[in-house]
Amino acid sequence: MAQDTLSFSVSIRDRVSATGIESENDNIVNVPITIIVLDENDNPPEFQNVPYETEVLENAQPGTTIFDGILVTDRDTVGENLDMSCIPQPQNPDACEKFTIEVTESQQDRLTAAVVLRQPLDYNDRMIYQVLLDASDGLYNASAGLEIHVRDVQNAPPVFQGSLAAVINEDSPIGTLVMTIQARDGDRGQPRKIVYELVTNPMDYFLLDKHTGELRTAKPLDKEALPDDTGLIILTVKAREVVDGVPGNDNLTVASTQASITIRDVNDSPPMFNKTEYFVSLSENTAPGTPLPLEISVRDPDVGENAEFALRLNDVSHVFDVEPKLVTGSSQISIRVANGTLDYENPNQRKFIVLLVAEETKTNPKLSSTATLTVSITDANDNRPLFEQDSYSTTVSETAHPGQLITTITAKDLDSGLYGDQGIRYSLSGTGSELFSVDAITGAIAVADCPRGAEGGPAAGQVLQRRRRQIPTRSDLQHEQPPQLNASARSGVEYMTYRIVNSGESNEYHDVNVIAPPTIATLYDSFETTPIPESAEMEPRGSGPSTTTLRPEPPHTNDIEHPRQPVGPGKAPCLDYETQSVYYLSYRATDDEGRGQTSVVSVRISLLDANDSPPVCESPLYRASVDEGATAFEPPLIIKARDPDVVSEINYRIIGNEAVTRHFEIDKRTGQLTISKTVALDVNHLKSENVFFGVEATDGLYTTLCNVNITIRDVNNHAPQFGRENYLTSIEENFPIDTVVERLQAVDLDTGINAEIRYRIQQGSFDDFAVDNRTGVVSIARKLDFDRRNTYQMEIVASDSGTPSLSGTTMLTVSIINSNDKAPYFTPTTQRAEVSEDAAIGTLVHTLVAVDPDVASSESLDYAATEPITAVDKNGKEVGEMEDFKDMFMIDRSGKVFVNRRLLRDSFAVIRITVLVTDTTAPSIQQGEGLLIITITDVNEEPPVSA
């Protein structure tokens, strides 16, 4: 700005003459006028004393000031203080990282700065840096360049160049050039000369010329003499810079490295075995492919093709083989039995002498060596006993007494002595083998004694045997002594009382007395022992406390307990056709007195029946599953009992309460169970999915009870239903996310998976609410806003997991309660007003305007002035904090702004007041801030004055 004030004078003349012509008598008034020109930021900064250039030593320490002559000026006096920064350039990407700009003085119209080193320099990496400087006054920018030259310092040791690896034949003559070692001074500004030194020289094989770096052989080479089989020699070489004619001796003038030289092998060694003779003994029954227990190795110290050789056996018998066939360098060797059978009984196969040969394959001449292998054969038990037949069958009556001979089975062995027939021992094994005995030497098979305790029934103080069948039913089987017990016991007949408990329409039960023979399952039952008290006596049922009642433990099992009658041949646990009619056993012959080889054949012993068996259920529990409303079992359900006696004819009858007999029927001849045509199956009517009952099977003399379990599968024929068609609730808009809004619950009359309900929101939530698909709990999913939406009508669907799935719906209406959670704000944020300089105290200048979305009346808003309050004078300059201007205006609580005291425009032309609006009804402080700018306009206070 060239001039900040313009001054001039305005003259006022009145004409006295009636003619209107100017005369000396006219009255003239001169009025001086001054116009203040306010400065604006309209000029860019300017760099002075450019161009900038400097230099720095490469060993300068970070923090060193390398240039301090930067000066920037700005013709404007307003705006922000000048600032300076470094601008990265593609050609110098790290310049702003290596150097930093430190501003030493910053004003609106002047800035001085210095360039300081931030990171270490290296002349070898970069010799010149171009730094682009950028100066800014907040609105305009200017730039200038600084060129920094890096001066080299002798601080880098020598650097080796080229390859430091070579290969040379081991038969090379003395003085052969191996390689030329080259190095240069790491400082490229004024490089020094280099001399070389050989620090380590294994075997003293080489010489190094200190001036030229030529490395040559000093004596004959021998690869096999080296500790490393690869022929690798590592040399350490040192390079020294020549300083003032003397080789240096510090870290800045000396460098070391390693050179690798590989001595190429020349074929001068044959492959060698670790021994010249090997001895081993083998059993004649050694299997083909078995390796000999020998530690054999072979090695050729040469390398490459010179160390490749083949292995072979000179073996006229062709019994043995060697592995591997081809070797490079060295290897362990395995000799195996290749083919043929070793036989000690053949005199020609008791000893083998084999020549082992190793011969090179790719050399000329082919060097080789040999070793001798002696193998001795020892005798072994290599023949097993042989039976004349693959299997044997025989029969015996179930009533045969212990000791009765059944059959005799023998075997032959081609070996002699104890390895042959003389040493054969016989044995019998398998399920039920304890019921038979065998002579170990003669092979005679006879009936064995019954298991201990089988002869005669248990007396007082002895034990009962409990036959337990694990059947997962809900039946209780109760064993009580009927009035006919004494007579039936004398005739060998046992009675059981079955208590049938039904899970259908009622829990009624009734007792059924039937003869209780074992079922098929008892063939695999375990036995438990229960002591019989000595005071226990057999008395008629209902005779009082002495009546014996045995109940099953635990529930859901069938326990049959009764004293065993005197038994012998034909009764379990002796041979019993009804218990087991055929025994499949393993008959074993072992030579060497039972310690040698073994042969096994199967022996089938069939029992001849004596007619004495009751019916037996083919399954301990019959199961079937049907759907609700089904009319037939698919596949058909047939209750089957069998009687080992061929003359018996079995009839079937359902044992159960009225609920069972009303829903199910059975064919008395075939045992096929069917669903009654007159009653439909319904889980809700039966009040259970499982129905348990018994089917009586009788051959006219003996009776048994077969257990039946019918599972009725639920059909998905009920849709979920909510307790109400509509749910109403309300929540405040400031409730947090995950707050529970409502708990919905639907009921499905089906069972199982058909009653598993999943909930979802069909529509109306606008993603602001979520429902737990398992519990039906509706919760807030994201922040609510009354001003955005104040009512939600959501359709909630409950679907079951049946196929096809059924569903029910309800409506959930949620009303949002408004919360005072938004702060008031000025509109506009910056408000302006003007007032004449001569305005009287109390004059209304402006009324502040603010709004609050949460309040309906402006009376809830409270206005006030707050810091900062600033001003500028008539020249546009900021007024200091100490000036007395902050109380010129007063703001009341309603937002009205009044003149508070006499206005002084010359000192305070514009006043900026920070204003604050507060919501007085908010639960916590809610305020908005704005700016009120009041411009005081000038008033012509001076009258015209005569010149």
TrEMBL record:
It is found in: Cell membrane. GO terms for biological process: homophilic cell adhesion via plasma membrane adhesion molecules. Transmembrane segments: none annotated. Signal peptide: none annotated. Coiled coil: none annotated. One of its GO terms (molecular function) is calcium ion binding. GO terms for cellular component: plasma membrane. Keywords: Calcium, Cell adhesion, Cell membrane, Membrane, Repeat, Signal, Transmembrane, Transmembrane helix. It is a single-pass type I membrane protein. Residues 48-160, 160-273, 274-387, 388-617, 618-722, 723-826, 827-946 form the Cadherin domain. InterPro entries: Cadherin-like_dom, Cadherin-like_sf, Cadherin_CS. Its main location: membrane. Residues 553-564 have a biased composition (Basic and acidic residues). PANTHER family: CADHERIN-RELATED FAMILY MEMBER 2, FAT ATYPICAL CADHERIN-RELATED. This is Cadherin domain-containing protein.
